[in-house]
Design brief:
328 residues, 2 domains, seven-stranded mixed beta sheet, six-stranded parallel beta sheet, 27% strand, binds NADP nicotinamide-adenine-dinucleotide phosphate, NAD(P)-bd_dom_sf, GroES-like_sf, Enoyl reductase (ER) domain-containing protein
Length: 328
Amino acid sequence: MDAKTMRAIQYKRYGGGAASLQDVKIQIPKPKKNEVLVKIESSSINPVDWKLQKGMLRPFLPFKFPFTPVTDIAGEVVEIGPQVTAFKVGNKVVCKLNFFKGGGLAEYAVVSEKETVLRPDEVSPSDAAGLPIAGLTALQSLKSIGTKFDGTGKAANILVTAASGGVGSYAVQLAELGGHHVTATCGARNIDLVRSLGADEVLDYNTPEGQSLKNSSGKQYDYIINCTTGVSWSVLKPNLSKNGVVMDIAPNISNMLAFIWGIFTFSKKKLKIVVLSLGKDDLQFLVGLVREGKLKTIIDSKYPFDNAQDAWSKSVDGHATGKIIIEM
Ligand SMILES: NC(=O)c1ccc[n+]([C@@H]2O[C@H](COP(=O)([O-])OP(=O)(O)OC[C@H]3O[C@@H](n4cnc5c(N)ncnc54)[C@H](OP(=O)(O)O)[C@@H]3O)[C@@H](O)[C@H]2O)c1
C-alpha cells in the first residue's frame, strides 16, 4: 500500500445494506490543529451506523457521500495537529468520532482531541472500541436517574430490557455497580450471561412473564432502561411504580407519543427519551472501570477488516450478544 493512502469501507448512497459497502483506497487524512491521527486497531458497529445508511436522518446524515461509516474506534496516535497538548505520538486511545464525519471503518481516522481519551495497556483495543456509543448511553441513562457509583446513591428497583445487547449488557453491569436491584430481559440463550453480569432476576422475553415484564415479586419498577423498540408504553406503564420513569433509548412510535403526551399532562409516570452526548469524562470513567475489572465489554463476534460487510449484516440482523468488533 502507498504510504499516503489507506483502505476504507464506504457507501455512496442511502440504502443497500452490507452489499453496498465498498472497499476503497483513499488518502490518509491529515490532522487539523486540534486533531490527532489515529491508526485504528479495532472499531465497533452500532445500530445507528446502519440506520443512518438506511436514511433515518436523511438528508442531514450522512452529510455527504461517499461516506465512511462508524464512530467507535480504539487505536494509537501516529500524528498530532499543531495545537494538540493532551496527546502525543504513541498514545493508545479510544475515540467517539463525530456522527457527521464518521470515518471508523478505515485504517486511520482523524479525530478531535475533545473526542479522544487515553487507553491504558490493560484495556484491549476491542474492549475499548465497544465503549463509546453503547457504554456512554448506558452510563448516561443511569446517571440521569441519579445513580452514583461510589456507594452514596439510593438503590432503586430497575428493569433493563434487551440486556443482552450492546447497551443493555453495559447497563446491567453499571446498574449493579450503582447498587440497584436489577431485573433484565433477554432471549433464553443469554439468561446465564445476563445473570453473570449482575442481574438479580432475568426474564426470557419470549415467555408471558417476559412479554409482560413482570418480575417474580410483582414489585413495580422505579425506573426502566428500555433498550429495544420491541416494547411499547402500554406494556411499560403498568410496570412502573407511582412516580416511575422509563428512560427509553430506542423509542418506537407509541413511546414517542407517550413522551409528547407526558410533556403536556401531569402524569406522574413518565417516559423520557435518552439522546447520547459525548461526555469525554464519562468515556474516561468507563475506560477506568474496564481497567479495574469492574466493567466488561461483552463481545458477540470479531471480524477481520476484510469481512466488514459480514459484521455489518450481523448488526442489521439485531441478534448480537454484546458488541460486534472489527479488527484492522
Ligand atoms: N438514544 C441513543 O442515544 C441510543 C444510543 C445507542 C443505541 N440506541 C438504540 O438502542 C437500541 C439498542 O442498541 P444496542 O446497540 O444495544 O443493539 P443491539 O446490540 O443490536 O441489540 C441486540 C440485542 O437485543 C436483544 N433484543 C431484541 N429485541 C428484544 C426484546 N424485545 N426484548 C429483549 N431483548 C431483545 C437481542 O436478543 P435476541 O438475539 O435474543 O433477540 C440482542 O441480543 C437500538 O435501537 C439502537 O439504535 C440509541
